[in-house]
Structures are given as structure tokens and as C-alpha cells.
Task: inverse folding
């Protein structure tokens, strides 16, 4: 077996390229060779990067030119009681983050929700989107193409679904901008996050559009999807899972657990999350939903860049006669329990901790449940941060934890 130093030298000599090393050695040796080469070239000690617990071969579908692993501290909050459409009972939620005080803050919110009897959570809508853009001659031709698409959704669905055993076309919506025609495909991708599935299926459908209409495909993704970018269409129409969570806390629980009053939290939410966000032109009207989404994504192997869509969250708080009503609605939470990073060993363990790894029965159940648990965690995080702001304890909490 070719050793790592020999491989590194062959790269230095120009005999091999970095991406070719797995053709000449196992994944672990190839990874070690790159690390040795990089250490020699940069003078950086990469011992920590190379000290990881899984087999490098386990990550071959997830990374190229692997040199090791980035290790992020992981904490846990819970147990969080969930009354969901898919998730039910108490759940621990692992969170991977480098932000001190985040896990402590979310756990305070979890404890408050638990004392109130748990959070009610529902997946309201599910659909992964891909939106190719086509070129046409003029507006008249664009209108004709859009009309043809509306009349032939079953034909497009048949072509798309031949590429997958699991994905199902829910809808195809045309949008016209001058000589551009965008088709926003929406798919039920079951327990997969489904971006790759949607892309491959959409390509097959686009071939039918080109064969049957004068439209010419310009780009398989035309940004009306919209993936990994702030976009109002995702905040309004949703992408991935649209999920909402709420809880009713008694006034006594607010005062004893959160150290403030119902009225103070309601005012902080209105002035900060609603008015402040509106003035900023924000798409998300929340305190820090992306904090919990990002930490949960890293812990469970989700696509970290899709935290952008996960921040499309609206937090509402209402001071009622019988207590504090709080809710979060995440318009576009893109999660899966199969495929992608969910197969990596540490991330698979994170999903096992929550209780929803792998495919569900029926299909989509586990991804729905994961979305509901994350939404419950977001609700806990919103409650805790709003309470810290309302009681003016935000900075002191960070000071006390040495952050």
C-alpha cells in the first residue's frame, strides 16, 4: 500500500493532483497525505484537524480533497416535551456551536416550556423547490409557454418522477419576466432534504418543456427556488418544511422561570422583532432563530448553508389574561433524516439522540418530526432571549458564563 509520505511527494513532484489520491490509496491514507503536504507547505501543525473519530471513507460522499475534520463543541438541551403531528413525547436536542451561553439560554427556555406542559408543534406545509429559467422570444411566447405548462403539469410530473423512487411533484408554477420564463417545481421528497433529488427530477422535466415548447433552458436553477439566499418567496410560499410551534405560559411561570413579566416580553417582541425588523427590511421577524437552527443543523448533518432559509421565522407574543402566549413560525426549514451529512457518524448519533434517524414510516414522518423538534428548540431560544432582553440580563448572562 502506498504510504502517505510517498503520495505527498508525488504531488510535490507533479505526478499526482490532490483530487487523484484516492485512486492510489485508501481514503484515510489519502487524507493523511494531503495533511502532510499542507503542513509542509504552510508550516501549520494539523494534528488537531487530523484527530477525528470516523473512517475517512465514511465522508467520501460529503467532501473532496479531505484533510481531516473541523470539530465543533456539541451540547444538549432537554428534555423538551413536544405535541406534534409527527414528533411526540420528550426529546433531547443536540446543538453544535461555538457561541458561549447559547445552549444555556435555550435550555432555560426548554425548562420553561416543560413546566408549562410542553410545546404544540405542527408541520403546516412541505415541499422542496427547484426553479429553472428558460429563454423565449418575447412576452407573447412567454405567455404561451406558461399556459402550456399549466395545462401539462401531469406530463412534467411523469417525466420528473421517473428519475426517483421517492420524490413526487406537487406543483409547477410558471412566472414570466419579459423574455424569461421561470418554472418553480415543488416536490414531496419524503425523509430526504431533497435538493439533489429535485434538481435531477427537474432536469428531466425541462427536457420535455424544451421538446414541446419554443422555450430554451438557460439555467437549471434560476434563483426563484430560492436556495441558500434571502428571498421573500421562501418566507411567503415556504420551502422545505413550514412548521409552527407555540406555548402558553402562566404569568407566574414567566416571573419565576424567566425573571420578568408577560407585558415586558410582549413589548420587547413588538418593538424588537416586529417593528425593528420591519424598519430593517428584514425577511425574518425574530430574535435569533438562526442560532438554534444552525446549531441543530451542524449537530444532525443538515446543509449548513440553508440556515439562510431557516431564519425566515416570525415570532409572535401575546399578553393574554391567563398568561403569555408565544409562537414561532418557520416558513422554510429544510431538513432531512436520510442522505447528505446525516450519514456521517457523529451527525447520525445526533439524529439518534433526537429519535428520528433514517427513513420514516410513512415516508416523510422522520423529517417532519425532526422539523418539529427543531421548531420547539427555536421557540425555547426565542423565549429565553426575549426574557433576557426584557429583564436587561443579556450582557450579564454572557459575563457570568465568561463569554
Result:
Amino acid at each position: 500500500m502506498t504510504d502517505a509520505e510517498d503520495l505527498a511527494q508525488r504531488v510535490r513532484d507533479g505526478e499526482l493532483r490532490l483530487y487523484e489520491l484516492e485512486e492510489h490509496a485508501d481514503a484515510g491514507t489519502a487524507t493523511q497525505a494531503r495533511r502532510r503536504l499542507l503542513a509542509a507547505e504552510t508550516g501549520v501543525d494539523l494534528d488537531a484537524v487530523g484527530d477525528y473519530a470516523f473512517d475517512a471513507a465514511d465522508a467520501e460522499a460529503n467532501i473532496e480533497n479531505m484533510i481531516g475534520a473541523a470539530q465543533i463543541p456539541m451540547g444538549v438541551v432537554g428534555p423538551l416535551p413536544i405535541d406534534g403531528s409527527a414528533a411526540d413525547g420528550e426529546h433531547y436536542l443536540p446543538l453544535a456551536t461555538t457561541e458561549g451561553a447559547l445552549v444555556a439560554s435555550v435550555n432555560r427556555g426548554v425548562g420553561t416550556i416543560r413546566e408549562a406542559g410542553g410545546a404544540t408543534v405542527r408541520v403546516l406545509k412541505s415541499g422542496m423547490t427547484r426553479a429553472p429559467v428558460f429563454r423565449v422570444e418575447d412576452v407573447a411566447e412567454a405567455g404561451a409557454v406558461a399556459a402550456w405548462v399549466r395545462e401539462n403539469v401531469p406530463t412534467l410530473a411523469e417525466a420528473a418522477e421517473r428519475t426517483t423512487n421517492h420524490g413526487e411533484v406537487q406543483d409547477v408554477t410558471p412566472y414570466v419576466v419579459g423574455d424569461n420564463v421561470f418554472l418553480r417545481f415543488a416536490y414531496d421528497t419524503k425523509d430526504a432534504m431533497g435538493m439533489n433529488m429535485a434538481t435531477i427530477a427537474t432536469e428531466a422535466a425541462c427536457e420535455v418543456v424544451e421538446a414541446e415548447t419554443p422555450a430554451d433552458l438557460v439555467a437549471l436553477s434560476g434563483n426563484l427556488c430560492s436556495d441558500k439566499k434571502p428571498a421573500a418567496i421562501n418566507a411567503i410560499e415556504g420551502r422545505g418544511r413550514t412548521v409552527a410551534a407555540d406555548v402558553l405560559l402562566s404569568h407566574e411561570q414567566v416571573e419565576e422561570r424567566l425573571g420578568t413579566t408577560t407585558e415586558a416580553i410582549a413589548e420587547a417582541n413588538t418593538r424588537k422583532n416586529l417593528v425593528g425588523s420591519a424598519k430593517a427590511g428584514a425577511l425574518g421577524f425574530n430574535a435569533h432563530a438562526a442560532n438554534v437552527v444552525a446549531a441543530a443543523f451542524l449537530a444532525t448533518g443538515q446543509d449548513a448553508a440553508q440556515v439562510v432559509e431557516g431564519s425566515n421565522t416570525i415570532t409572535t407574543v401575546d399578553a393574554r389574561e391567563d398568561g403569555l402566549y408565544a409562537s414561532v413560525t418557520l416558513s422554510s426549514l429544510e431538513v432531512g433524516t436520510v442522505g447528505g451529512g446525516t450519514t456521517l457518524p457523529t451527525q447520525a448519533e445526533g439524529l439518534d439522540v433526537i429519535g428520528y434517524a433514517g427513513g420514516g414510516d410513512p415516508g416523510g414522518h422522520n423529517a417532519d418530526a425532526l422539523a418539529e423538534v427543531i421548531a420547539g428548540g427555536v421557540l425555547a431560544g426565542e423565549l429565553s432571549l426575549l426574557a433576557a432582553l426584557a429583564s436587561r440580563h443579556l450582557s450579564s448572562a454572557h459575563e457570568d458564563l465568561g463569554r
